[in-house]
Structure formats: C-alpha cells, structure tokens
Amino acid sequence: MKTKLIFLTFLLFNLLIIKAQCDPTITSPRLSAVFADKILFCENEDEILSTTQTYSTYQWYRQEWTWQTPNNNPWEAIPGATSQQLTINGGDQLYYFKVAVTQGDCTGESPAVMADGYVFALPAMMSTFVPGTYEIVDGGIVHVCQEAPVKFDDVFPVVYGPHTWFKCVPGTTAPFTGDPCVIPNVTGDTYTATEPGKYGFYACSEYCPELCRMLDPLTFVELQYGEWDFCGNLGTGEVVKPKENKLNIYPNPTAQFLYIGKESEEYKEVTIIDMSGKLVLKKNDHQYRQGIDVSHLVPGNYIIISKSVKGEVYKNKFIKK
C-alpha cells in the first residue's frame, strides 16, 4: 500500500510539472512599465519578447489592434518566429502578441500582450482656472483677474519624465542654457502661474529617454492679467486657491455614449476637445440623464468641459474606444 501511495504521489508530481511547463508566460524589459498587459514601445529600439520557461517548440502569433470590442481581427502566425524569443520593432506597435508552445505530449498558449505606442502620445496641456476669475478671449488668449492662479498639467504625466516649463514661446525646439523663456527650477508635470506669460512645456519620455517633445506652440496658453470687468468681486487682495473640479462620467472608456453623473444638474455648455486643443463637440443646455454621443470621434484621449447653470466649471478626461 505504501509503495502504491509513493507511486501515485510521484505520478501526480510529474503531472503537475507537465501542466506548469505548458502554461507559457511572455515577458519583456518594458512589459508592465505602466500597464500589466502592455509593452510601452520605444521608436528607435527593438524589443525582445520571450517566454519565462523553456519549451520544445514555439510559434509566435500577432493580431492587429482595433477599438472595436470584441476584436475580430485574425491571429496570424509570424513566419519564422519559432524560437523562444521574438524581436519586434517600431512597425509592430498596436499589435497583440501570443505564443503557442509544446512540451512532450502537452501544448499551451500564452496570454496576449500588446505593443503599444502610448509613449508616443504628443504632449498635451490642460488648463484649470478658478471659476469667475477668467475669460477666454480667442487664439489661446485668456484674461485673468490679478493674482488668480492658473494650473497647467501635462495630460500624459505618466509618460514623460522631467519637464521644462516656459513663460514664452522659445525660439528653438529644445531648451538651452540661458533660454529667457525657461521657468527656472521647475521640472514637475504641473505648474501654477500667477503672472502674465505664454505657457507651455518640453519633456522627454521617462521610458524612452531619446524621445523628447515640445508642446505645439499653437497650443501654448497666453495669460493676460488685469482688473477686468468680471473681476469686481475679487478686490480683497486675497489669492484664490485652485481646486480640482471633476464630475463622475461613465462609462470610461466608451465607444458611443458618455454620461455626466451628477443627478439633477443642468449644464449650460458641454464641450469636448482633443489632445491638440481642437474643439470636436459642443452641446448647449445639457441634462445629466442625456447620453452624449461620441461614436463619431476618433479613438483616443479627450477632455470634456462641463459648465453648469450655477457657474461651476468641471474638467474630466475620458477615452474614446
């Protein structure tokens, strides 16, 4: 009886080993840098995918990404990709990859990972104003009451590392020592301005150090401070502190309808802008229970600005699938 138990234990142990060997997992240097199932890809570098275990045979596959759910694009076997490692490059962005393996009598297939060009997101800046202290004029010019702060944020802070912030449009595509437009000693992904200037930034990707981008000068924001007519109630000399003004919006990401989730609130104006600052949708007299149809928008990241009838201004980011 003891001999049989030892044999069964040995057999079970071997079966568990075989099962473990047939459960491939893909790894790469940049996998999980931000997203657990995505590789943040660098434009000028190759990336090597590999299995964490060794098998007898390999066949790598790829599937083109789409914003549609489910993804009905076919999985295609990559010719010649039959070793433990697979090298991908800039042309392989926005593809899913998986590998099928065999080991003895068993077969296995890895979960898919995606090579994403997220790190190539062009820099975009979001401006947050204190309600009642500003007036948007035109062409990126904003009239602001004296001492009222304006907060600027990089829309993709997780992508970029140290920033260089400007108070005027620089004459070159990258900052240099002594550049009069550079705001000294400011390297974070946010900056709060309290004086006149034309603001923007330059930053390099944290994961791809050679990838550096300047905010398009056309999207720099010019602040003109003064005692404007709408500033009548701000003459106390007290500095108004900025606050985060956000709404619950859902679903996010969305493929078609977007809802603003503050019950019984009405919005005098709702606008949606893309990451270049272009207005892509505007709606007046919006009710919270009404869905905003965004199905015609190109998949990507957007900012929705909601102005309530009470004068509150809310800013949210959302993703169009």
From TrEMBL:
Secretion signal span: 1-20
Sequence ranges assigned to domain Secretion system C-terminal sorting in this UniProt record: 249-319
Coiled-coil residues: none
Record keyword Flavoprotein present: no
InterPro entries the UniProt entry points to: Secre_tail
Zinc-finger as UniProt keyword: no
Protein name per the record: Por secretion system C-terminal sorting domain
